[in-house]
Amino acid sequence: MPFQIVRNDITKMHVDAIVNTANPMPGYGPGIDTAVYEAAGADKLLARRKEIGMIDRGCSVITDGYDLPAKYIIHTVGTGWRGGEQCEEAVIRKCYRSVFDLAVENAVESLAIPLLASGSYGFPKGIALRIALSEIEAFMAVHDLKLFLVVFDEKSFSLSSELYGDIDSYINDNYVEEKKKEEYPEDFGSGNGRTFVSSSANMTGSPFHGSGTKLSKAVSERGVKKRAGSRLKISSDEAMYEASVCEDSICAAPMEKRSLEDVVKNLDKTFMEMVFSFADEKGMTDVEVQKRANLDRKAFSKLKCGTTKNPSKATALAFAIALKLSLDDTKDLLSRAGFALSPCSKQDIIVRYFIEHEAYDIYEVNIALFEHGEQTLGVSA
After folding, report:
1. What is the SS3 string spanning 225-278?
2. What is the 3-state secondary structure (H, E, C) of 351-381?
3. If you write DSSP's letter for every residue of 12-65 in order, what string do you get?
4. Structural domains counted in the chain
5. What angle (nearest 5°) sits at the alpha carbon of residue 16, between those of residues 116 and 139?
6. How far apart are CA 362 and CA 292, in angstroms?
7. 92 and 135 share a domain?
């Protein structure tokens, strides 16, 4: 079953179990802990916690959900942020693993979990999210469970500047400019002896104009921006190339071109035939493709067996990410389902950003899509 990000009050989630960030000793503190106790019935839950006693940091216990829609509450105890030098990350990773162990032991099929340690424990949200994604992805690779990462409000989940650096500039330079052309066509193209070029290097607010852009800051300070555990990166040379060369109104880094022979031999293949052809080339099993695409097992089976003829566009894009396709191959695959990458779709631009940077982790792609209000990839066909 797939992983989803939702904006909700975790106490209102209709799942088998929710996760509560608990105190080591019986009693409840600010934030999610208080909300869970109040929604479950504070007297009943507190009495049970007193029976359990102290919980060590990094460990978890399970109780009934009482008045909650959820059957169970898994209580996990983290640790405060002290600059990252006192094994804080190891404790939070242990929290996730102990939560997942209890979920498996109690046959939990749907689990709602907050972004651990990002609230009162004071972890930087970027670090908290990297821990969450790596632990969730490792767990989901070997288990079938419907897992929800629950965030309460938009403000608490503003992370793109921490994780993706220049993605906002990339969207602005491409999506915003394309929308201008769509709404004010008389301002673009040739007219009155003037020629207008849609190039991010010539735009106000481009990565190389003004002090508020993230990309120019990243390039000037570090030259190469790298994020731990990922291949998402951008160098100053790549940035200059993207600023000066545009394709279909979307600036693109140079990609490997497909040979004519490859194109011709695949002309008569259906969407799923192309998926399996790419999977064979890359040595991926069906299960690997399904999980990397964040697809429900039943939905994948229907596509594989032909019960569902063609996927939704979000699912088609999920396959492109799962198969680590180049931009050309992505366009080819989408066309088999009747879709195309559009410069007027923010979802398409965000996905294209990740493909150009060869960052093929669908959880990371979905975090960016979610934060920008776009439909996430995978889940169901």
Report:
1. EECCCCCCEEEHHHHHHHHHCEECCEECCCCCCCCHHHHHHCCCCCHHHHHHHH
2. HHHHHHCCCCCHHHHHHHHHHCCCCCCCECC
3. G--SSEEEEE--SSSS--TTHHHHHHHHH-HHHHHHHHHHH----TT-EEEEE-
4. 3
5. 50
6. 7
7. yes
Q: Catalytic residue among 16, 33, 166, 348, which?
A: 33
Same-domain status, 246 and 271: no
**Token couple for 41:** 């019935």
Core vs surface per residue 126-145: b (16+ CB within 10 A) or e: bbbbbbbbbbbbebbeeeeb
Rounded CA separation 173/359 (Å): 20
State pLDDT tens for residues 91-128.
999 999 999 999 999 999 999 999 998 877 888 888 88
Paired residues of 147 in beta bridges: 3, 111
Residue 195 pairs with which residues in a beta bridge? 190
Give the residue carrying structure tokens 């400019």.
Answer: 177
* Domain boundary pick from 251, 277, 304: 251
Q: Which of 253, 245, 254 is nearest to 198 (CA)?
A: 245
Same domain, 333 and 235: no
| Cβ pair 118, 128 in contact under 8 A | yes
Q: Is 187 in the active site?
A: no
pTM of the model: 0.71
Quick check: helix, strand or coil at residue 261? helix
Amino acid at 141: A
Decide the pairing of beta strands 233-235 and 190-191.
Answer: unpaired
Give me 62's structure tokens: 């399970």
DSSP helix/strand/coil, 152:
coil
Domain that holds residue 196: 162-251
Residues 6+ apart with CB under 8 A from 352: 250, 252, 327, 341
Are the beta carbons of 366 and 5 closer than 8 angstroms?
A: yes
- Provide CB contacts within 8 A for 244, sequence distance 6+: 199, 201
| 294 in the same domain as 240 | no
Would residue 381 count as lying in a domain?
A: no
From the centroid of its chain, how far is CA 191?
Answer: 43
User: pLDDT for 320-378, tens place per residue?
Assistant: 999 999 999 999 999 999 999 998 899 999 999 999 999 999 998 998 898 888 999 98
